[in-house]
Amino acid sequence: MSSPALPDTPPNDGSGEAPAERRMPSSQPILLRAMKWGILASLALIVIWAVIGWFVSGTTGLVGGALGAAFAGVFLAMTIGSITFANRFITSDLYVVAFFGIVMGTWILKFVAFIVAAVLLKDEPWLNPTILFLGVVSGVIVSLVVDMIVLSKSRLPVVSDPN
User: Fold this and answer.
1) Which of 16, 32, 57, 119 has the fewest CB atoms lying closer than 10 Å?
2) Cβ proximity of 75 and 67 under 8 Å
3) Can you tell me whether residue 155 is helix, strand or coil?
4) Along the chain (163 residues), what's the average pLDDT of each consecutive run of 10 residues?
């Protein structure tokens, strides 16, 4: 009678070798913490800019403020998400190529999405473009501040990750 495998025991594929464990860079927990705080800050900014927009120009300001802060939050999540996703390929021989391909591809996608959104939304009567712009700018500034605070309070080893 065989005993059941322990939950933290890696599954055995019959080859006698333990599967290669996936290791993540030591920066991964910092990125995930920045993602969590960035999302929370973005949600707060959506509410704040919706209220400010409402008081400035009614419904059009509410939509502009909420949409601007939401754009900034989505762009923040895309950046950190692309880095954390690219880190999954750390064991690959093409890790550096994959990493920069994924991160730069996401950056290009964000750039194109921003241009398309700016062109499509510039003359819409249902939103206040000034409040939209201020929501985006404040979201970018807050995401930079959140990243700076998370990074300054994190402990990252001085020695690079082992191979």
Assistant:
1) 16
2) no
3) coil
4) 48 50 79 94 97 96 96 93 92 93 96 92 92 94 92 77 60
Q: Are 52 and 91 in contact (CB under 8 A)?
A: no
The CA distance from 41 to 45, in Å, is 6
| Helix residue spans in 5-128 (DSSP H) | 28-86, 95-121
Residue 93 to residue 110: CA distance in whole angstroms: 27
For residue 120 the two structure tokens come to: 């499509």
Q: Which residue do the tokens 């059941």 mark?
A: 4
Q: Which structure tokens are listed for 161?
A: 């990750």
Question: Nearest 5 degrees, angle CA 46-CA 134-CA 118?
Answer: 95
Contact between 90 and 25 (Cβ < 8 Å): yes
